[in-house]
Each structure stands twice: as C-alpha cells, then as structure tokens.
C-alpha cells in the first residue's frame, strides 16, 4: 500500500484509541500525512512520535463536542499541511448497559453529544475545508442498524451517524466528497473491555462466539483496512454506503 495516498492529508479522530491508532498506522504506512486528534492527551504525542518515523504526522488534542475545538483541528491540518483530503471520524464512547426505562436523560444526551453531535461538527468543518474533494469515513456500529438490550442511547447515537453519513454523502457528491460509514462488530479495544470485560474472559469469548458468525471479535486493524480502502481512490465509486465489518454479526445467527 506504500504510496497509495501520495501525501494526502487525513484527520483521524479518537486516534489514541484502539481502532483510531491502528487505522492511523495503516494510513501513514500507505503514504498519508495524518493529523491525529483525541480528547485524551496521554499517548497522543507518543503515538505521533512513533508514527513520525514512517511519515508526516501531527497530534492536536480536542474535545469534539466543542465546535470551536473541531474548527481548530481542521485549521491545524490546513496550517500544517496546506490542504485536507480525508477524515476518519471515529471517536466515540460506549454506554453503560441500562434499560431504556431507567436511562437518565443526561446519560442519553451525553452519548448522543459525543457519538453524534461530534460527527456533525467534524463533517461540517471538514467538508468546508475539502476544496478539492475528498473522502470521509464515519465509524458507526453494527448497533447503528439493529437493536439490542439496554443500549438505547448508544444505538440511537450510531443510527444517527448512519443518517448523517447519507445526508453528507448527498451534499458532498456535488463537491467531489465521498462519505461512508463503517459498521463494526465487537472489536478488541478498551471500549470492548469497558463494556463487557477482559477479551480473554470465558464469558466474553462465548458472547462473541455466539454473536458473530466467524466466532470471534475483530482486531482493530481489520476495521482499519476497510477505513483505509474507503479513504483511498480505490473506493472512488463508493459513497453513502454503510459497510458492515462485523464477522457476520448482522448476517444471521447459528441457531
Ligand atoms: N470496540 C468495539 O467493539 C466497537 C464496536 C462498534 C463500533 N465501535 C466504534 O468504534 C469507534 C472507536 O472505538 P474503539 O473501540 O477504538 O474505542 P476506544 O475507547 O479505544 O477509542 C475511542 C477514542 O475516542 C476518544 N474520544 C471519546 N470522546 C471523545 C471526544 N469527546 N472528543 C475526542 N475524542 C473522544 C477516546 O478518548 C478514545 O481514544 C467508536 O466510535 C466506537 O463507538 C467500537
């Protein structure tokens, strides 16, 4: 993949996390210049240092729920690299498992603010900056197109990411900007651990085996490969798509 991106400039959000850092690594290896951003500062500079050995990388922290902070991330990309060609809008949080009837409004609003409003902020400022076209990938979830127990806030937030993706794809098409969403199944990251416990625990292994036809959880790189492809010109006829990358989670059950 080396050289695929020919110095294209790509923003990766949630870059310190599992899927974000794996994807950033793949993009740098393929020749992209990458702006890493995350609300978490710890680890961001270290990741940028590590990836800088392979290409041009910069880290700028931001809480994406703050529109001014998002504007500043895009301005940072333009100041540092002079253009913006792509973005992987991947930052997000999980929701504690709570029945809808017990879910506090504040908790519902919090997950929508981080998982959905942040993506709106990103799309708005990234699309305005992509004056020569581009490609944007948003991370939704398998739960962006299906229901599940005790996850009403997360499910609503990720369905909304799918809607935003399609809305942005329609408006972006005239500007030469493709916009797609990924629907990951369970992936081995901190978020998975926070939501369900150690990836090695028998309960988690059995749960992932039951849920995914392939019988296991995904690795962050397995999401990153598809994100990288969508961001590349190889996906030049793909826009407005909601692409599953979920080991068969959505396809059916082994009953
Ligand atoms: N891990 C899974 O099983 C799974 C499944 C489906 C979808 N996803 C989605 O994948 C994306 C990446 O998650 P991950 O699994 O790598 O988890 P992760 O917790 O490792 O990474 C998420 C990152 O987002 C950052 N973030 C959170 N709030 C932010 C904010 N307000 N501003 C900026 N950054 C913020 C976090 O600091 C973290 O680094 C998320 O959108 C998540 O919903 C994950």
TrEMBL record:
Species this protein is from: Pseudonocardia zijingensis
Protein name (database record): SDR family oxidoreductase
Family: Belongs to the short-chain dehydrogenases/reductases (SDR) family.
KW Oxidoreductase (keyword) present: yes
First and last residue of the signal peptide: none
Stored InterPro entries: KR_dom (IPR057326), NAD(P)-bd_dom_sf (IPR036291), SDR_fam (IPR002347)
Domain of life according to the entry: Bacteria
Pfam family for this entry, one: adh_short_C2
Keywords: NAD, Oxidoreductase
Domain Ketoreductase: 8-185
PANTHER family reported in the protein's UniProt record: DEHYDROGENASES, SHORT CHAIN (PTHR24321), ESTRADIOL 17-BETA-DEHYDROGENASE 8-RELATED (PTHR24321:SF8)
Keyword Isomerase in record: no
């Amino acid at each position: 993949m080396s050289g695929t991106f020919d110095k294209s400039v790509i923003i990766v959000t949630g870059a310190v996390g599992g899927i974000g850092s794996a994807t950033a690594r793949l993009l740098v290896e393929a020749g992209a210049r990458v702006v890493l951003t995350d609300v978490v500062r710890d680890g961001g500079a270290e990741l940028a240092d590590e990836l800088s050995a392979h290409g041009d990388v910069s880290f700028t922290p931001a809480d994406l729920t703050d529109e001014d902070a998002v504007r500043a991330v895009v301005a940072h990309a333009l100041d540092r690299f002079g253009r913006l060609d792509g973005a992987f809008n991947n930052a997000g949080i999980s929701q504690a498992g709570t029945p809808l009837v017990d879910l506090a409004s504040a908790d519902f609003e919090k997950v929508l603010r981080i998982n959905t409003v942040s993506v709106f902020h990103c799309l708005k400022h990234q699309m305005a900056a992509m004056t020569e076209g581009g490609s944007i990938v948003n991370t939704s979830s398998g739960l962006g197109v299906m229901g599940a127990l005790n996850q009403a806030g997360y499910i609503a937030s990720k369905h909304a990411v799918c809607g935003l993706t399609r809305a942005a794809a329609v408006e972006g098409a005239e500007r030469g900007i493709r916009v797609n969403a990924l629907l990951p199944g369970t992936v081995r990251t901190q978020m998975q651990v926070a939501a369900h416990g150690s990836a090695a625990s028998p309960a988690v292994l059995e749960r992932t085996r039951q849920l995914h036809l392939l019988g296991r959880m995904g690795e962050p790189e397995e999401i990153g490969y598809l994100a990288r492809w969508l961001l590349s010109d190889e996906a030049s006829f793909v826009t407005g798509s909601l692409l599953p990358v979920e080991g068969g989670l959505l396809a059916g059950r082994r009953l």
